[in-house]
Design a protein that fits this description.
2 copies of one chain form a homodimer.
Chain A: E1 3-7, H1 11-23, E2 28-32, H2 45-50, H3 64-71, E3 74-76, E4 79-85, E5 90-95, E6 100-104, E7 107-110, E8 114-116, E9 129-131, H4 135-145, E10 152-156, H5 160-171, E11 175-180, H6 191-203, E12 207-210, E13 214-220, E14 223-228, E15 233-236, E16 238-241, E17 245-247, E18 278-280, E19 287-288, E20 295-296, H7 301-317, E21 330-334, E22 337-343, H8 346-352, E23 357-361, E24 376-382, E25 389-396, H9 400-412, H10 417-422, H11 437-449, E26 455-456, H12 458-462, E27 469-473, H13 477-482, E28 488-490, H14 493-496, E29 509-513, H15 518-529, E30 533-537
Parallel strand pairs in A: 1-2, 1-7, 2-3, 7-18, 9-16, 10-11, 10-16, 11-12, 26-30, 27-28, 27-29, 29-30
Antiparallel strand pairs in A: 4-5, 5-6, 8-17, 13-14, 14-15, 19-20, 21-22, 22-25, 23-24, 24-25
Helix pairs in contact in A: 1-7
Amino acid sequence: MKKILVVGGVAGGATTVARLRRLDEEAQIILFERDPYVSFANCGLPYYIGGSITERSKLLLQTPESFKARFNLDVRVNSKVVAIDTKKQEVSVEESDGKHYTESYTHLVLSPGAKPFVPPIKGIDLPRILSLRNVPDTDKIKEMVDLQSTKDVVVIGGGFIGVEMAENLVEIGLNTHLVEAAPHILAPFDSEIATMIEGELSKHGVNLMLGKKAIEFSEEGNQVVIHFETGETLKADLIVLAIGVQPDTQFIANSGINLDERGRILVDEHLQTNVPNVYALGDAIMVDHRVLGGKAHIPLAGPANRQGRIVANNLHFDKKESFTSVLGTSILKVFDLAAAATGSNERSLQAVGRAYQPIYIHPNSHATYYPGATALTIKMLYDPNTYEVLGAQAIGQNSVDKFIDSVAMAMHFKGTVYDLAEVELTYAPPYSSAKSPLNMAGFVARNIIEGLMPHARFEEALNIDPSKQILLDVRDDAEVAERKLEQSIHIAVNELRHGRENELDKSKEILVYCAVGVRGYIATRYLLSKGFKARNIMGGMKLSGGYGIQ
Amino acid sequence: MKKILVVGGVAGGATTVARLRRLDEEAQIILFERDPYVSFANCGLPYYIGGSITERSKLLLQTPESFKARFNLDVRVNSKVVAIDTKKQEVSVEESDGKHYTESYTHLVLSPGAKPFVPPIKGIDLPRILSLRNVPDTDKIKEMVDLQSTKDVVVIGGGFIGVEMAENLVEIGLNTHLVEAAPHILAPFDSEIATMIEGELSKHGVNLMLGKKAIEFSEEGNQVVIHFETGETLKADLIVLAIGVQPDTQFIANSGINLDERGRILVDEHLQTNVPNVYALGDAIMVDHRVLGGKAHIPLAGPANRQGRIVANNLHFDKKESFTSVLGTSILKVFDLAAAATGSNERSLQAVGRAYQPIYIHPNSHATYYPGATALTIKMLYDPNTYEVLGAQAIGQNSVDKFIDSVAMAMHFKGTVYDLAEVELTYAPPYSSAKSPLNMAGFVARNIIEGLMPHARFEEALNIDPSKQILLDVRDDAEVAERKLEQSIHIAVNELRHGRENELDKSKEILVYCAVGVRGYIATRYLLSKGFKARNIMGGMKLSGGYGIQ
């Protein structure tokens, strides 16, 4: 009879044990969880702190009792696995009261997850500096933020958890500061999109401090003082650390199970470790990256859940089902906006030296003649040689998840921009446009590939050489009156073909821009047909915010 | 120099001329439109009648003047092409004032669209019987419905336009009746899903008359009387005919351009007719069906728009770009719900004798612990031999478009249920679940394929043979008290494994059901492990409405 031990009872571990029991009624299955709760809603913790989720009990998706009743599982909370003896096939368990015991296994599944990274900075262990991983952490933070005396809260780290925390702290009326050491928050997004997310945070009252590195914490009365590398300081009643996560794998260190240099568990495509009958999954493992190749650490709930099913299948059937690779598809709510991404961004493609071409579009969420349409900004990257889609980022009020999901599905098949141009998606006026945002992204990429749209990046519009270039604004008078780029001249697109092209110097290159890129494209086509050298500024003025132009 | 004539100026024709001009500044391009308006929002017409779209001007996306100003196009409205001479390469045009002239061409593009089908029934031409194709039709219907005296309106035909009209008539407070000759409305949906749409219509006050065929219309005072085949009658102040559409191609009949027996234009994959330099697109052509093979008539805006681009490219570059095939992806709003479909449904697969397996799931639009999650009902069909996804239908308040779009994208690549199980979509609590509805659909299909879930259709639960079968309800007491199936016995899933399995007769087959199918699956797995013969009723009690069980 199988005796299966599973270490870690959140997303991956909980999925694994439920699936294992459905496959095998007879196996002995024991789930160890170091914390007091299993299968809790870890992605919901910030929203409980912020009050969107009002009942704490909703965070607890399963309990040891419910697991016992439905699946006859032996779930042991407050039980920390401290060591593994892979030769004897047993683990050492430490209970919260200090008692130790060992438990043998025929099969072992490691799903220990990741814990918040806590940098070795002076003062980091002050009691008002907390981090968020589990339900007890949540209770502690909630207790602090609910105090009358808590007014200023600083979140350190602008990743997903940091941004979600900042939003939720604003929701409950606190003065919220978000500190990020890098120039922009949210590494999965390139700076043009990250800037828009930052704008939404600022608009809702988050005090953003970008490019600020904390190097020390000290106490002053009932407050903590953050000391930045720049010499600046900031006082807070509470600090939430959200700098990142690291695998919680110290107990594996001397077991013979291979970890990488950062403590992450190495598995093959079947999620098996180097030790027979030992599997691993979730936030503690390395996986293959679908676009970049090589290994990646993607601590997300979706992959962990799917991995749980694969581990259970492979363990039970002894079959070799594969976890293919990850795209890193992710989304977050930022007040009234959603921002989502899949695949690689420009920065990560540059880092590995992979060729790419970006495009930008600003479609509407649905037909503009039907009420309620809202604008999206989309950046997509494709391979200029194979035309394969390499990644996409989107931000807007609506349809962001829909767009990125469809792109992720296309990328699952290593689809090209031609596939996006061809795909037949749902359309009715309340939901989309007859040419969907995916079609539009495909069309724009095809126009570039087929040489129909010579293009320029927005940066080029800010750095023209007036001796050789003309910056041409083809928008309408009212738009130009509101805001325009320096050194630009203005001829509305419809006026160009009524003789005004003659105002342009044919010996110079014309960089054309409009609001989103569509009229710029039409004007560019016209100018090219008349023998001008012209390029269209992709993305148009809607990208200007990312370059400090408001 | 090219001289390109385009017949028909709505979705397909308007896209074609705009693209053609962007490709070729020099060509002479003339667009003929029989009606007074081009490039109008045909999908928006019902919503203008219903008042969601308040400004009539919003329906007019382009005008002859705007096309002239931006694209230097010669747009001729009220100009009906009445004949084509493909030998002389010229068309005959009839203007609304009765004047005739001919216009020669080097290239001809046919985008005449489809017109409402008007059956040859006695009284069909009574003035209170209208149909909806264009802006003048819309003006006429709107004028009628705005009359104080208009109280009862009958829509005949439960297709997309008929259902959208019915919803919009209710929105403006009219007594609305929807008549459909078939047993259910909306042919793209199978009866389980169509029933849910019908439920939403009834709930909002639409008087649904299914399986009723009108055979005559007569006048009585200021009303029309509809006479049904059954002998019943119904009086109305206004009748809107929405029985279906037919290609508006009479003018092509003797031109040598091939039409099928129903007047639809035959084109090759490059959208070229049998006559050189003559292209066709939009609601008047036949296309290849991606799932069923063979030809299909799919009068939808999305394909027409994409075809316009292809026609322009092929015409201009003389290249052979293909319009691949259609899935028939569609969506409609029905009051608070959206209903969408892609690919083939069960009925159409049966009609061609193609093997298929359906699955049903009822996932939530996002994590249930985050506020605002709503339920979806999804039916998916796949090939039991190749596992290819053949079609999907979904209904719910939210995320219906997102789900169907991703399935359509998978079907574009001829993806299998394994692809759905593997794909990595966006997840955060406000947007989805860690196991997305697509993943869940893939998981359920895999459980069937891999023999883990012996399954039954809901119909089987209604027709058990008590001498050989037991119908087992594994829901909780409260659910059973509310509503249960006849002949069922009740043992909650969690009680099964605490000895109560012994109450079941092992010589009989157990058909297990719960609310949605999940607990039924768990109970089925348990019973199988204990040596019972058991099958899970797919879709559970949530499908019961489709079988008359409320």
